[in-house]
């Protein structure tokens, strides 16, 4: 195990972890992103050097780094190597309900719209109906899929379903604020402390002023997410054609936030 490991929180301007900041500064100089004063202080000069590094780098999946001047787990891994981020891999849900929800969702992978692009199909209609809508309306159904998974899992465990009954992503985000067992995690909060995101957490994206996309996080590997999503495709569209497992989303890409139900 390398001696130098990711400290568990994002290093950025104002960070007091002098050891981590010093290591970052030294590494930036070595990889040609200086000049940077190696003084353990994360100021504008260091942030600019980090942005320079991010602008020319990709992660282990070949995805360009988010250029934000902050050293989260993904940028850290590219700077120092994947093995230096050992503690942020999470593959097990933190509660029986979340574990069951992920099992239910995984069982739906491969479900497709009939015909493709119609927001209809035998299984898709069931997802939509569960939120009280008539599938004949050809509704976007990513939030319906999430609610259906929660409802089925909660029913099998004979426990209350904490998930808001809504087909709207932005409505779900708002309604979750009134659920006592829900914790809303803002996007910036998750980027600064990625250890908050665990399997079973929901991710929510805003795609316009009135629409969004959401799904279930199955696994967390540093900043990288494995997700199960309805109404999507291999490219991650919010108007896709089925239920897919995806491995290309990152914590930094989630622009609305996350919800964890306990």
From TrEMBL:
<feature type="domain" description="Peptidoglycan binding-like">
    <location>
        <begin position="18"/>
        <end position="79"/>
    </location>
</feature>
<protein>
    <submittedName>
        <fullName>Peptidoglycan-binding domain 1 protein</fullName>
    </submittedName>
</protein>
<dbReference type="InterPro" id="IPR036365">
    <property type="entry name" value="PGBD-like_sf"/>
</dbReference>
<dbReference type="InterPro" id="IPR002477">
    <property type="entry name" value="Peptidoglycan-bd-like"/>
</dbReference>
<dbReference type="InterPro" id="IPR007921">
    <property type="entry name" value="CHAP_dom"/>
</dbReference>
<feature type="domain" description="Peptidase C51">
    <location>
        <begin position="137"/>
        <end position="231"/>
    </location>
</feature>
<dbReference type="Pfam" id="PF01471">
    <property type="entry name" value="PG_binding_1"/>
</dbReference>
<dbReference type="Pfam" id="PF05257">
    <property type="entry name" value="CHAP"/>
</dbReference>
<dbReference type="InterPro" id="IPR036366">
    <property type="entry name" value="PGBDSf"/>
</dbReference>
């Amino acid at each position: 195990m390398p001696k130098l490991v990711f400290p568990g929180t994002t290093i950025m301007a104002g960070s007091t972890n002098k050891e981590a900041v010093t290591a970052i500064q030294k590494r930036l100089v070595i990889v040609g992103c200086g000049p940077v004063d190696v003084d353990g202080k994360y100021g504008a000069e260091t942030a600019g050097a980090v942005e320079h590094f991010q602008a020319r780098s990709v992660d282990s999946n070949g995805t360009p780094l988010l250029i934000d001047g902050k050293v989260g787990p993904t940028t850290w891994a590219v700077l120092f190597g994947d093995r230096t981020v050992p503690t942020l891999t999470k593959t097990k849900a933190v509660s029986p309900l979340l574990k069951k929800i992920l099992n239910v969702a995984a069982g739906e992978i491969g479900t497709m719209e009939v015909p493709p692009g119609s927001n209809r199909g035998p299984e898709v209609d069931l997802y939509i109906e569960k939120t009280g809508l008539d599938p004949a309306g050809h509704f976007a159904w990513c939030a319906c899929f999430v609610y259906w998974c929660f409802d089925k899992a909660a029913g099998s465990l004979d426990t209350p379903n904490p998930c808001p009954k809504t087909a709207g992503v932005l409505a779900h985000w708002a309604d979750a604020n009134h659920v006592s067992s829900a914790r809303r995690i803002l996007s910036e909060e998750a980027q600064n402390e990625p250890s908050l995101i665990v399997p079973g957490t929901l991710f929510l994206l805003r795609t316009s002023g009135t629409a969004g996309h959401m799904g279930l996080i199955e696994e967390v590997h540093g900043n990288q997410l494995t997700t199960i999503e309805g109404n999507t495709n291999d490219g991650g569209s919010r108007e896709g054609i089925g239920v897919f497992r995806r491995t290309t989303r990152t914590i930094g890409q989630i622009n609305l936030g996350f919800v964890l139900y306990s």
